[in-house]
Amino acid sequence: MQTSIRNCLMYVAALSLVVGCGGGGVERPDRTSVSGTVTFAGVPVTDALVVFSPAGEGRGATGITDSNGNFVMGTFEKADGALPGDYIVLVSKLEQPESSVEVVSEDDPAYNGAPTREQEETEAKNLLPVAFSKRESSNLTATVGTEPIEGLKFDLGS
């Protein structure tokens, strides 16, 4: 279970680094509205994480696909757009394992406050090809300018 929790925490930490924190009164740079669709073998992908990772310096953006595979990118807030620039696009969809610890009820005479049995530990599994979730192997790119972008299409093959 520790590995699964550690993986989840690393995933959240990575998202935090890409998205960043609020600016506390600091003026934020102009962003461009960016939206599109993610499919796998032509089928829309639900609940996939889409990350625009800057090809050079800059701040990334993220989005989550809906039930139709549609996403809207956000840099500082959900759906506030992406900064102009060139990006490597990363896409992943993780299946989170269920809890791997069985806990004894406080009413049970055997209760001692600790888990009683560790089941086989499972790690989060990427439900899409792993190549699309890594900068060095994703062949997906996007260039954001000052004009809104609608209808980007990322088909992850078969």
Written account of the structure:
With 158 residues, the chain is mainly beta. Helix content is 11%, strand content 31%. It has one helix at 2-19; strands spanning 34-40, 43-44, 49-54, 61-64, 70-72, 85-92, 94-95, 101-102, 117-118, 125-126, 141-144, 149-155. A hairpin with a 6-residue loop joins strand 3 and strand 4. It is globular, with a radius of gyration of 19 Å.
Extract low-pLDDT stretches: none
Order of helices and strands: HEEEEEEEEEEEE
How much of the sequence is in beta strands? 25-35%
Number of helices: 1
Helical residue percent band: 10-25%
Average residue pLDDT: 81
Distance between the termini: 32 Å
Structural class: mainly beta
Q: What is the oligomeric state here?
A: single chain
Largest sheet: 4 strands, mixed
Please state the CA-atom Rg, rounded to the nearest Å: 19 Å
Q: How many β strands by DSSP?
A: 12
Q: Which word captures the global form?
A: globular
Summed up:
It contains 1 helix and 12 strands, in the order αββββββββββββ. The protein has one helix at residues 2-19; strands at residues 34-40, 43-44, 49-54, 61-64, 70-72, 85-92, 94-95, 101-102, 117-118, 125-126, 141-144, 149-155.
